Amino acid sequence: MPHLTRSAPGTASSVTLGVGVPGYAHPLVAPVEWAELTRPGTPLHWVALNVADGPGSRPDPHCLDAVRRLRNTGVDVLGHLDLARGTRPFPDLIRDVHHYVDWYRVGGFLLDRCPWGPAELPGVRRLASALRGLVPGAHLVLGHGRHPNPGYAEIADQMVTFSGSWGDYRWSQAEEWTAAHPALRFCHLVYGLPRGHLEEALRIARWQGAATVFFTDRTQLRDVSSPWEALPGYWDELVSLIGRGVSE
């Protein structure tokens, strides 16, 4: 992906946005969602594959087909690794990594529920080094869900510095240290976002210097598992707005 120059929070300059998909439901459950991702012109930065709270116990033919289709369109497919805020044993994570690489040939990883404090930084640094050793050039997205200790910026290709509700997002602010980094270092995931506030949310992402977003009208209260597992009702409009550079 190209590097973008971002502005400091509070300045008005353009940020070219794209979509990062944190993990749709299984392709058998969400076939429309996976098909939409291969539509020409969809502004995707990456798509995370979460087979069964990880890579599963064996290669899944439906997931293999979905990954192949995405790879053919040039989209980065990332393996979903749950760090459980730093409590998962290192050998368990590396086992999942090998399965993702051997079975699905992923190009990187979304480190979901990544810790954000300085005490956990050495452990995440060790894991990141191992991942890049196993997958040269691996794209690593650290899924903190909030602003982490600035030291994590030395590890990540990208950090999820917001993951939460629209009610919280519309009043959120970027921390000052983020101004030293380009926009493609940051991702925002927002659920419960009404259609009528799409353009406002895109402006917030641009203003805070985040180049990758995933917005959905689904909520944690209504949905059984995760608000990210299905298409938002306004997917076509979101793709169109990003494609037209409405946030700029």
TrEMBL record:
The species this protein was found in: Streptomyces sulfonofaciens
Classification via InterPro entries: Spherulin4
Domain of life: Bacteria
Protein name: Phage tail protein
